[in-house]
Amino acid sequence: MTYPVASEIVITFARTVHGASGGVWRRCRPGYTWRGSGNGDDRRIAPAPGTTWLEPYPVMQDTRLPDRFARLAILVAQSKQQARAEDAIARFARRYGLLNRVHRKAGDAESDWPRRPVWSESLSVWRYELRLFHVLWEMERALRRSSRDGAALANLVVWESKPLAVRVKVPADLDEPDVPAELVLDDRHLPLESLEYEQGSLPGPLSSYLRRRLNHKLAGRVDVTVDSRGAPMMQIVPDSLLSAIYLHFSARAAGVAPGGMRTCARPDCNVLFSGRANRVYCSDACGANMRSRRKRDSDRYSNQYSNRGGQQ
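The structure corresponding to this sequence follows.
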């Protein structure tokens, strides 16, 4: 599950925005609150009452975002009390924001809510996305450990003989019709010769399913642009926090990140890029900008030193 990356082209995970073009994702630094009753769509997380501004930040800078989301998934799954799970989600949201760019509006049913509708996400959406990511996360871990621990794969992949079929174990409520977890292999459905793995293989079906599921999560939610100014640069722009999580995770599964990715050394850029080992800036423009800054700082210091010397 590796993909070649041209060494002549710098690939950057560009900053994405919450609700607008360009810029970065946004979070509510005052925090988020839960409103409503029950444990599904009736419970919704939204910016704290009185919030008028969301703080922008470079979401793709944090290469540990998938790890933090996976830990949140485990914590929520193990929480016996709903309040504890909601507190964990609220802390994550305060750090990274809500998951998606388009949210259903929550009304002002309670007196302390603002009178205008506010953007929110339901608890059921968070639970579903956390459970799904944890399942895919465990699949990727099993594939990485497959050379020394085949039992993990045996618990995830099942071959059946009549009819010949291979099935990846996925909870029924997480199964995606467009990405079936079971493939029937015969002349009427899918010939065995058309597969990219051999009959009886365990890593092959799991890797294929994981790749198809990741592609499905990213389809239509990631834009790719090529910037020809200076060194050739291809920017990968996720449209939401959830897309950024899956983009980081997919890059890691493909062998691109985190070791192959670096953060641009320009302080106000912070995009991730892949390129030569001795390259510290994502583009020639960032390098030129930093050289200009250093020259201005040097000239300013020289002028201040000269002025002090002349006054003495």
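Helices lie at 65-78, 82-96, 123-144, 150-154, 203-218, 241-253, 284-311.
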